[in-house]
Amino acid sequence: ESASGEYASTLGQSAFDDILLSHWEDRAELGLFRYDVTECATKVLPGELGFVAQLNEGRALKKRPTEFAIDQVAQPFDPTKFNFNKAGINEVLFTFGAATGIATSKYNEIDATIDGLSADLAVDSPMFDPNLVLINVSPIEYGHVLLVPSVLSCLEQKLTLPTFRLALEMIREADNPDFRIGFNSLGAFATINHLHFQAYYLSTAFAVERATLSAVTDVTFVPPSPEMNAACPMESACGGAFEESDFSSVHICTLADYPVRGMCFYITSIADIAKLAAVVSSCCERMHDANIPHNVFVCDRGLRAFVFPQCFAARQAAGEVPESVLATGVNPAVFEISGHLVLKRKEDYDNADETWARNILSEVSLDAPTFSRVVSLMLTGK
User: Fold this and answer.
1) Band of pLDDT at residue 3, cut at 50, 70 and 90
2) How far is CA 126 from CA 100, 122, 365, in A?
3) Active site members
4) Roughly how many angstroms between the first and final C-alpha of the chain, as a whole number?
């Protein structure tokens, strides 16, 4: 057992790491986090998959509550609710652009007494619409940040080709196997309806990374029409991705021995990252349009992406989740589903084992027939 920070990377893996972590530590010294995540007890549970358990009582008490309906994946952006234009300016670490890599920005120099971003981001150019990297003020792990694409466009929490491509570019820029990126749709434990990805460092493998894969051979990916992303303000950054007709370099699998039914999409060459982005984003957009909550986990420097359609909120609303599971307070969002269990009660942390973890996560999973239908929808649109 150790403190949570001991499972984090050290500085120096890449220039991206150095800048991100140095600024993140600066914000910690300023007291911007709601609790000290490095003091949270963390351990790897014995077993085949090696789930990681963390006792994080602060996150249970101080995390921002959800402000929208949990039974609708597609919901319009609501400026009256919390969004990242209302974040404190000192929560911003830097901007990120896929074409130019990282850049320490003027935001680090703005007076930290300013209450929000929007007044300062409304600068001279009407085209100024940065992709921001901010701290997560309720962190799960060391270096926990948020990537908010085109912050001023006020995008809803919907994964699209250009925004997912940006996330893949960020994990590629980090060039660190300990750095992973996650996405939660509405209905799958996203708590803010303003498009964002989450990311942090963990030096041990996530359980899902150890899962056995089974190749999908009975369904072939059918790309959507180019109009799918036409409304996204970042669309021009990824123009032409769906003009490809050959996506065979993107390997498509299901998880064979994991408590949550899910899919893995992987490439063996970073040269195929645009194709990976195209396949995964189209699968997620099809689920979004069909009102299917989902989570996405990216690892291996952007070479692998796991996609989980899930039904926990629907089962909870129907009274189908056992009280023993609800009592734990575990919110099965992307990182929990992938194997990093954030626990809120000491008794759960002390008694957790792999069987317990599997039982908790199995409540998230679609049943086999439903999952089969969703796989067909994801890959073909039908």
Assistant:
1) low
2) 20, 8, 44
3) 196
4) 47
Q: Which residues, including other chains, have CB under 8 Å from residue 294's CB and lie 6 or more apart?
A: 73, 185, 188, 284, 287, 288, 307, 308, 309, 310
Q: CA–CA separation, 376 vs 267, rounded Å?
A: 21
C-alpha to C-alpha distance for 334 and 330, rounded to whole angstroms: 12
- Segment 11-50, tens digit of pLDDT: 457 889 999 999 999 999 999 999 999 899 999 999 999 9
CB 363 within 8 A of CB 332: yes
Q: Phi and psi of 364, rounded to 5°?
A: -85, -25
Alpha-carbon distance of 35 to 153, in angstroms, equals 31
* Whether 212 contacts 255, CB under 8 Å: yes
- From the CA atom positions of the chain, what is the Rg in Å? 20
Q: What is the pLDDT of residues 62-96, one digit of tens each?
A: 556 666 677 899 999 999 999 999 999 999 999 99
SS3 string, the chain, reads CEEHHHHCCCCCCCHHHHHHHHHHHHHHHCCCCCCCHHHCEEEECCCCCCCEEEECHHHHHHCCCCCCCCCCCCCCCCCCCCCHHHCCHHHEEEEEECCCEEECCHHHHCCCCCCCCHHHHCCCCCCCCCCEEEECCCCCCCCCEEEECCHHHCCCCCCCHHHHHHHHHHHHHHCCCCEEEEEECCCCCCCCCCCCEEEEECCCCCHHHHCCEEECCCCCCCCCCHHHHCCCCCHHHHCCHHHCCCCCCCEEEEECCCCCCCEEEECCCHHHHHHHHHHHHHHHHHHHHCCCCEEEEEEHHHCEEEEEECCHHHHHHCCCCCHHHHCCCCCCCHHHHHCEEEECCHHHHHHCCHHHHHHHHHCCCCCHHHHHHHHHHHHHCC
